[in-house]
Each structure stands twice: as structure tokens, then as C-alpha cells.
Amino acid sequence: MSGYDGDVATYDPNGKVHQISYAQEAPKLGAPVVGISNENCAIILSVRRSPSKLADYQAKTFRISQNIGCGASGIYADARKMLAHLRSECVEYEYESNESHPLKSLVIKLSNEAQQRTQYGGYRPFGASLLIVGEENDKPALFVTDPNAEYYKFKAHCLGKNSQAANAFLSQYANEITGKTCKELCFMALRALKQAGIMEFESAAVEVGVFQAGQYRNLTSGEIEEMVKEYQQRFPVVNDDEEDS
């Protein structure tokens, strides 16, 4: 305890709010999730964790509406709360206007809700970040929300454990994102996750959400299995012994 981290309404002498800084660490501990967007589509790909051998995998990608989806990393309960808020906003907007909720204004509404939790005592910031995909200006788009209530638009981004290495890979190949198909973007996401320390991919643990042609959907288990098999054929794992020989 520093004396300045008792609540979100207290600043330290350097102008920092420690509770917000602590919340920003939570998404870095979750299972990694990657989002990539180009002119053809936007994808969210994650490798899910299971709390034990007796438990099923926890979902990491979610459908918000027919044309918006998201992936999450951080405190799972907080991510569910954020997801419920997004879905509620979409339902209310569609009921009142008879059209789909615009992507960017939905992200702003979530950020406004998150900002309330950084201002008043008795609250704590959301301990989760979201990758949100949909359509902006008639093109696929990817937005990222942060526990400090800020949001950013990205071509590609990774959240979760060892995300720094994955983001370095995505930055290195950023110029290759344009023109790729959805499947090729999924391959790029898997390669980025490999940089984050995931060397082998079990198709049952992989989860993929795709926004394309104005619609969002999660790929079926059969589609994911086929995609992972093709990835493993194109990018086989090379052992250290094979590299030395």
C-alpha cells in the first residue's frame, strides 16, 4: 500500500491514480487474444484456457449483435459485465431506431461507462480490455478498450499474457495485412500467438470470430479444425534439434 491506492478518487503527487494502473495490469494476465482488420474483414482469434482437466474451455470471443463482436482479456467477470452493457446498448438502439448500432459510438458508450468507474469512490475500474470488431465508414474496423476508459483504433493488436512479443510481430508485418483473406489473417494471428509463447495449437482450444460483409459470426469447430490443420501444414513447428542439424 502506498497511501494513494485506497480508491480511484485519490491522486499521488505525480498525478497518477494507482487503482487505474493496477487495473491495467489485469488484461496482461489473461489468455492472449488477437484482433486484425483490413479492407476485407476483421477477425478475432484466441487460444482459450481451461481451469482444470475436468472443466470446459472459457469463451474468449463473443457476439454482441449481428454485426459486432468482441474478444476479451482480463478478469472474466468484468468482461461479462462489459459485454452485457454493450448488448443492452445495441438492443435499445435497434429498438428505437430500427437499425444497427454504429460501431464507434458503441465503443464510446462503453468508454463513458468505464470512465465513471475511474472517478467516484466506492467503484473500481474494469479489470478487462476488449477487442471490438464491426463496421466503420463501410469498412471493417477494430477498436481496443482499456481499463483507464480510453479506446483506440488498430489494424492489429494482441491482448493478454506475453502480448508485447505478439504485438512486436504484428508491427513487423503490418504492411502485409492489406489484401489478405480472412483465413490468411487467422494464420497471421496464430503466428503472432506463437511469438507469445504458444507453440502448438489444439483446435478445440482455438476460437475465432469473423466480421465480413456486414455480419459477425464465430467459426464452427469444423471450420476451426480445418483452418488449424492447414496452418500446421504451412507453418510446421521446427524443433531446436532440427535447426542445429
Automatic annotation (TrEMBL):
The organism's place on the tree of life at top rank:
Eukaryota
Q: Where is the signal peptide?
A: none
InterPro entries hit by this protein: Ntn_hydrolases_N, Proteasome_alpha, Proteasome_alpha-type, Proteasome_asu_N, Proteasome_sua/b
Q: Which keywords fit this entry according to its UniProt record?
A: Proteasome
GO biological processes = ubiquitin-dependent protein catabolic process
Q: Which intervals hold domain Proteasome alpha-type subunits?
A: 4-26
Which Gene Ontology cellular component annotation is one that this UniProt entry carries? proteasome core complex, alpha-subunit complex
- Similarity-based family: Belongs to the peptidase T1A family.
Q: What is this protein called?
A: 20S proteasome alpha subunit 6
Q: Give the originating organism.
A: Hexamita inflata
